[in-house]
Amino acid sequence: xxxxxxxxxxxxxxxxxxxxxxxxxxxxxxxxxxxxxxxxxxxxxxxxxxxxxxxxxxxxxxxxxxxxxxxxxxxxxxxxxxxxxxxxxxxxxxxxxxxxxxxxxxxxxxxxxxxxxxxxxxxxxxxxxxxxxxxxxxxxxxxxxxxxxxxxxxxxxxxxxxxxxxxxxxxxxxxxxxxxxxxxxxxxxxxxxxxxxxxxxxxxxxxxxxxxxxxxxxxxxxxxxxxxxxxxxxxxxxxxxxxxxxxxxxxxxxxxxxxxxxxxxxxxxxxxxxxxxxxxxxxxxxxxxxxxxxxxxxxxxxxxxxxxxxxxxxxxxxxxxxxxxxxxxxxxxxxxxxxxxxxxxxxxxxxxxxxxxxxxxxxxx
Length: 365
Hints:
Layout: H1 7-20, E1 22-27, E2 32-36, E3 39-45, E4 48-52, H2 54-63, H3 68-77, H4 79-91, E5 97-103, E6 106-111, H5 120-133, E7 137-143, E8 148-160, E9 179-188, E10 196-204, E11 209-212, E12 221-223, H6 239-259, H7 263-277, H8 286-296, H9 303-314, H10 319-332, H11 336-350, H12 354-361
Parallel strand pairs: 4-6
Antiparallel strand pairs: 1-5, 2-3, 3-4, 5-6, 7-8, 8-9, 9-10, 10-11, 10-12
Helix pairs in contact: 3-4, 5-6, 8-9, 9-10, 10-11
């Protein structure tokens, strides 16, 4: 598991962001794109220009229907042309309002004014007491440009790694075979980059790998209001009604977080891992197998070499070994988002239907 912020660091940064962040509702006609070197800024918000994060650039491009490749080229080569394009399409619908979420002098989201963000501070305030009450250990956390992550394990819900799976695709250290431990990954975006998710997972102690289990192994919960850009009817609700709705939603988050540590789900995950250990890679062309899994899971092509290296080094040429090789690469990833993608990919490999696994296991160049 890739480490990020400590719990203390996460709490401090959330408090800092909560104090610094600002939300504005602004008519498009009041906004003005201003060219700067290889970029643009947005003026007309609270009397000062705001830089724009890469993710917010993408939202602006999508909202104005400017193709992203052309948008990026203008930004890099002709920022004055991009500013002219942005201003033309913003002012063509001047009365239309947008929610602009800003942090540290930068626009980090460009959203519908009806968007009701699930703020990371509120989420942490809701779920951390729940996790502490279960004596969960926070192993990793981070705040990326688009998401907050909290990854934790429940030591009391664990089992020895089944015989035959002791190496898990990696070299064993000492005589301890290692344990599988119930884990959880909680992630959220408060700028429209995805819904709040609670994902049951399994942590392997001897190689510190985390696999976010896919639906065939453990239930994966996607939490979020139906349509985060709320319907027109929501505009008639009073503040009291909205606050009551928020309270009900956070109660739901608490329940789902507690349910993610159910023992029956953990046992299903172990059964899934045992079964994966009995499914061999039949191909003699490991590179072709890795190429195929990278393509099937839509992983970055740069993932190939690391997965192949750890698969070959571990010597566990099974479905479990391939999953472990993928999650092992996550430990060394520089980018936290990418590491989490690999941890999910490891769980997806374990959940592949028999026919899909057979195609991967027999892949050849």
